Amino acid sequence: MLQFAEPPVEIQMQHYAFLVDDELFDRAYARLVEWDVTHWADPQMTRPGETNTEHGGRGVYFKDPAGHAIELITQPYLS
After folding, report:
1. pTM surpassing 0.70?
2. Is the N end or the C end of the chain the one with fewer CB atoms within 10 Å?
């Protein structure tokens, strides 16, 4: 279960990774692009506007409104 608190609650930035299938990744990525959400191919945020093909799948990083790092991946890291 995820619980959310509305800003300005002071919470340390967290990283959340979600393993999704290709169809959900495509739909989510299309929304990121459609809604002009800043996103990156890497956690260091050096490749804006891209996805990655690490670990034999695809991945993307973006931040939620509270500044938490959200990662969508289609393959687990250790597969």
Report:
1. yes
2. N
- Distance in angstroms (rounded) separating the CA atoms of residues 39 and 12: 20
- Give mean pLDDT, residues 32-52: 96
Give residue 25's region: left, alpha or beta (phi > 0; psi -120 to 50): alpha
> Is 72 in contact with 55 (CB distance < 8 Å)?
no
Strand, helix or coil at 30? helix
User: What is residue 73's predicted lDDT score, i.e. its pLDDT?
Assistant: 97
pLDDT of 79 reads 60
Q: Put the strands of the sheet holding 39-40 in their side by side order.
A: 15-19, 69-73, 59-63, 39-40
